[in-house]
Amino acid sequence: MDLDDLERIANKAKDQFRLEALPQYLVPEEDEDFAAWQRGERPRRTPESSAWLAEIRDTTAAGVHWWRARVLDYPLAEYSAHELHAYQDNAAAGEEIYVADRAWSAELTDLRDDFWLFDSKVVVRMVYDDEGHFLHPEQLDDTARYVALRDLALGHAIPLADYLRKYEPDLIAEPF
User: Fold this and answer.
1) Is the bond preceding 175 in cis, omega lying within 30 degrees of 0?
2) Can you tell me the distance from the alpha carbon of 80 to that of 126, in angstroms, rounded to the nearest whole number?
3) What share of the chain is helix, strand, coil (3-state, %, to 5)?
4) What is d(CA 145, CA 154) in angstroms, rounded to the nearest whole number?
């Protein structure tokens, strides 16, 4: 499977769920924004400046449900802080985002799978190396397992805005 295959699957789905559980994701598309973050800048994206956010906005308006759960480890990695800040732009475009601290439940301790779940029927695991560099997508057959992992993560997560207000208020983005 390659990224074109993943895109074909995603384009047919009306429900697109993503679980992220790694401390960092080192993907070229985010290099510039993450470097700016490391310099102390707080870059913001809009659907007008980001094709990804335009896709979320446009497909959400057409009835696609985008949602994600992010399982975090503390101390918070610098990348994870950057990501929490950036997620606010995703949320503004229409994505529902939920966050959990792995320490909140022993059930989250071993939850390290990263995957997309499309229409609760098609699972694509995202394979990364130990440092967080993306390697490849991999379609899996064990849908029931991944539906259960989604439900587990969501059962311990709270909405992004609530998480930021309660645990990371310094990461709340300034209004545009």
Assistant:
1) no
2) 17
3) 45, 25, 30
4) 14
